[in-house]
């Protein structure tokens, strides 16, 4: 089980990576056989290629992210963060809660994002 | 799958129930065969009797709770909340992130709480 400090560091790098906009960098935080479900209920993406494809969207938009809270328990973390995305019609914000599990090497083995379209609102 | 409004209502009743201090009322929000893991990694309690026993602690202490954020996705919810507990040596606070799943009738089928002892701090 990775140290809590390792898990916290990967979560911080993940949230920063979304804003930096490099899909390969974000996907590299995942284990090769990892799974991703974002949002929960929308279907599971499995494996590095599918995960890299999922994050290709982050390269197409300008985002700002802020980590609001992280809780580590066992090999898992739950965290609350804010994503502000610049769209042609104005900026929107959403504050998902994500849950991740990690392997011995601190790589993400699963990610599940809890949010729904009704949580997306125009940025203040 | 229950309506998001039903899930939100059960989450609110759960958080209020912790503060009201009646273990049977809190346990009644769960399905009979539900599971509870609090914190994640500490072992799973299964079934209404085990769950009622787990919440017996809430009857022994005075707590105040505040719901900070709820995100509903599919048949699941993740939520961030604050628990202030009055102890003989002073009040302590912790702000866990919990994840719950729900059955058709809006009963909790699983609860997993993400926090660790290092997240517990003296109340302001």
Automatic annotation (TrEMBL), chains A, B:
SnoaL-like domain segment(s): 11-110
Q: What class of enzyme is it?
A: isomerase
Q: Name one GO molecular function term.
A: steroid Delta-isomerase activity
Q: Tell whether Mitochondrion is among the UniProt keywords.
A: no
**Does the keyword Isomerase feature in the UniProt annotation?**
yes
Its Enzyme Commission number(s) read: 5.3.3.1
Q: Which UniProt keywords apply?
A: Isomerase
Record's protein name: Steroid delta-isomerase
Organism whose genome encodes this protein: Saccharopolyspora hordei
